[in-house]
Design goal:
This protein is an alpha/beta fold. The chain is built from 17 helices and twelve strands. The protein folds into two domains: 199 residues, Glycogen Phosphorylase B (Rossmann fold, 3-Layer(aba) Sandwich); 172 residues, Glycogen Phosphorylase B (Rossmann fold). Helices cover 48% and strands 12% of the residues. The strands form two sheets. A six-stranded parallel sheet has the order 2-1-3-4-5-6, with helices on both faces. Strands 9-8-7-10-11-12 form a six-stranded parallel sheet, sandwiched between helices. Helix 11 links the parallel strand 8 and strand 9.
């Protein structure tokens, strides 16, 4: 009897999807403008406002479109934010698509894909596979959330533009404070690096998602000030943006500085996933320029990823016998403790956790002037900065740090002091809690 009831409920859900193919009219409006289609009338949804009473201890829902738990900067951020808020006495749930029933999700996505393909073909005479795929994930996540009682939460905090859109739709009923924290530069970066065609239907669609995420939010919590001009260009107001730097819990007790002898090798360490935008190839080109001056230096590459084979081939081609790939590691504090210099040659980033870890570890860092990095690393004060992709600059500043122990120690000490003041989980949770309370 229960099985029949479950099948009946699922049939009703499928029927609901079929009768409401595209829940978000603003996405259709953006695509209508692109194709020059006459817009259809939007349905006005009138809902009774739900009253939210402030409580001393809050119930908070953090949402992510991506896998959780998993390895990655976003996932680490979520874990740290949850623990920090719970330390302050709040109840925190994290909702990711991986926590939904897998078979049900597959069924929903299949139905959505079929119906939306028909919808786009009838309306525009074509469809985008990328948009279709995004629709399947977007609307299935929404349908799963609709089966939950979100009334029990005081705060919704979306960690990406997708769940900000979904919660924005559902919040027409709940009327809760909705916050949005972007962890990347969204469509802006893809257009900047030619990963998306400027005047394409995909650009129109995803820019509409970006704008609606901001419009739906009571407040945008930025990881760094570098987001501000990008978000303002998408319609965000200064008064609705707050910067709160990422905080971490770092096992500083594992960092032991040992006196080096003349025979000991200097260690340069790079901690990052092996991806194109992390700039490893520029590091290896810089090391090649210095090859004859690095007889007593080893370079450790910590992390793994899609570029490992290509990068290993590059190292062999450049005959860099002092470069070692250590793979993914769980003993980062210990590795930092053995390092003299840490380098991150990234070409596109927000606020890398590896830089914050290095600051807590009191190690000298060389990194690039991109994203939010210059907000933490001030050149010749808390580290050394180079322009992304500038091999000559990178080589010169690595050599400077290798030869100037006084500079190494001074910028490392300054970095540690900055981190302890601004980059703890306790500090992050306190500031975000203050934003939450201001909205209740």
């Amino acid at each position: 009897m229960t099985d029949k009831k479950n099948h009946s409920n699922q049939d009703e859900r499928m029927s609901e999807i079929s009768s409401q193919l595209i829940p978000y009219p603003y996405l259709i409006s953006a695509m209508d403008q692109y194709y020059g289609t006459i817009p259809s009338h939007k349905k006005q949804s009138g809902t009774k406002e739900a009253q939210t009473k402030p409580r001393k201890k809050m119930r908070i829902l953090l949402t992510t479109f991506w896998k959780y738990p998993a390895i990655g900067g976003l996932q680490n951020y979520l874990t740290m934010l949850k623990s920090g808020l719970e330390e302050r006495g709040h109840h925190v749930d994290i909702m990711a698509s991986t926590q939904f029933d897998r078979d049900k999700l597959i069924g929903l996505r299949k139905e959505i894909g079929k119906d939306n393909k028909r919808f786009y073909s009838d309306r525009y005479g074509c469809y985008s596979e990328k948009i279709l795929d995004n629709d399947q994930h977007l609307y299935s996540y929404e349908m799963m959330l609709r089966d939950m009682n979100l009334e029990r939460y005081d705060i919704f905090h979306a960690q990406d533009r997708f769940t900000a859109n979904i919660l924005g739709v559902l919040n027409e009923h709940y009327k809760k404070p909705l916050l949005f924290t972007p962890h990347g530069f969204m469509t802006h970066s893809k257009l900047k690096f030619n990963l998306m065609e400027k005047d394409s239907i995909e650009a129109a669609y995803f820019l509409a998602l970006d704008r609606k995420a901001i419009e739906s939010s009571s407040q945008v919590i930025m990881l760094c000030e570098a987001f501000r001009p990008i978000l303002k260009n998408l319609g965000a107001e200064d008064s609705k943006m707050t910067t709160v730097y990422t905080g971490i819990n770092f096992r500083a007790e594992n960092i032991k500085k040992k006196a080096k002898t003349v025979e000991d090798k200097m260690i340069i360490t790079c901690i990052s996933r092996l991806r194109p935008r992390k700039g490893h190839k520029y590091l290896f080109e810089a090391i090649a320029l210095l090859k004859n001056q690095l007889n007593n230096v080893d370079v450790w590459i910590v992390g793994d990823g899609v570029m490992r084979e290509e990068l290993e081939n590059q190292v062999r081609a450049l005959q860099l016998d002092n470069v070692f790939f250590l793979g993914s590691r769980t003993d980062i504090p210990e590795l930092l403790g053995q390092s003299d210099i840490v380098v991150l040659p990234t070409t596109s980033d927000t606020l890398p956790i590896s830089i914050i870890e290095t600051m807590f570890a009191q190690r000298a860092i060389v990194t690039t002037n991109c994203g939010g990095i210059p907000e933490l690393i001030q050149d010749y004060h808390t580290g050394l900065l180079v322009e992304p992709g500038n091999v000559q600059q990178l080589a010169a500043k690595l050599l400077l740090l290798l030869h100037d122990s006084t500079l190494r120690e001074r910028i490392a000490q300054n970095a540690r002091e900055f981190a302890e003041k601004h980059l703890t989980v306790a500090n992050m949770a306190k500031k975000i809690e203050e934003v939450y309370r201001s909205l209740l």
